[in-house]
Amino acid sequence: MRPRPQLRPRQPQLRYLLLEERRYPEADLARLPNVAAALFRLENAQAPENIQRVIACLVEWLAGAENASLRRAFVVWLKRVLLPARVPGVEIPNFSELEELHDMLAERVKTWTQEWKDQGRQEGEAKLLRRQLTRRFGPLPSWAEERLGQADEAELEEWGDRVLECRSLKEVFGGSD
C-alpha cells in the first residue's frame, strides 16, 4: 500500500547514523577517553583482562557525584548482561559500584581466563568430533547432536577414540546396534 501524498508532510523524517562497534580496532578505541568507546571495548572484549582494563578507565572517568547514575547504569548492564554472557555458569558476586567490580575482577580474572580457555577447548573438541562423526556416518540425528552438546571433556575424548574403531554411530556413543 502506497502512502497517501497528503500525509507525506506529517511522516517522520528520521536520520540516523549506524555505528558498527566491531569495526573499530581496540587500539583506536583505547585512545578515546569516552564512555562510548569504553562501551564498544566492553562489547568486543574477548578476555576478562580486557574487561578489567576498561572498567579501570570507567572508574577514573566517572568519578564524582554527577556521574552516579551513569556508573549505576554500567553496573547494572555489566552485572545482568555482559558478565553472564562472557563467563556463563560462573556465579558473579553482588556489587553496586564499578570500583567493587574492578577489585573483584582483579581477584578472579585468572580463574575466569582459565575457565574461558577450558570452555573454548571443549567447544573445539565437540566441533571436531561432530565433523568426524558426520564424515564417517553422515548427517547426525538430533539425539547425537544433543549428546555432543551436553558432553563433558572426558566423554568427548572417549568418543573421539571410538570414532576410529566403531562401525556405527550408536556404538561410538556406547550403545550397540
The residue ranges in which pLDDT falls below 50 over 5 or more consecutive positions are: none
Q: What class would the helix/strand composition place it in?
A: mainly alpha
Q: Estimate the mean pLDDT confidence.
A: 88
Number of beta strands: 0
Give helix % range.
55-70%
Distance between the first and last residues' Cα: 59 Å
Q: Please count the helical segments.
A: 8
Domain count:
1
How much of the sequence is in beta strands? under 5%
Silhouette: flat
Largest sheet: none
Order of helices and strands: HHHHHHHH
Rg computed from alpha carbons, rounded to a whole number of angstroms: 24 Å
Structural description of this entry:
The chain has helices at 26-30, 35-44, 48-61, 68-86, 98-137, 142-150, 153-162, 169-172. With 177 residues, the protein is mainly α. It has one domain. Helix 2 (35-44) packs antiparallel against helix 3, helix 3 (48-61) runs antiparallel to helix 5 and helix 5 (98-137) packs parallel to helix 7 (153-162). The mean pLDDT is 88.
What is the element layout, followed by pairings?
Blueprint: H1 26-30, H2 35-44, H3 48-61, H4 68-86, H5 98-137, H6 142-150, H7 153-162, H8 169-172
Helix pairs in contact: 2-3, 3-5, 5-7
Concise overview:
By secondary structure, this protein is an all-alpha fold.
Descriptive tags:
177 residues, mainly alpha, 8 helices, flat
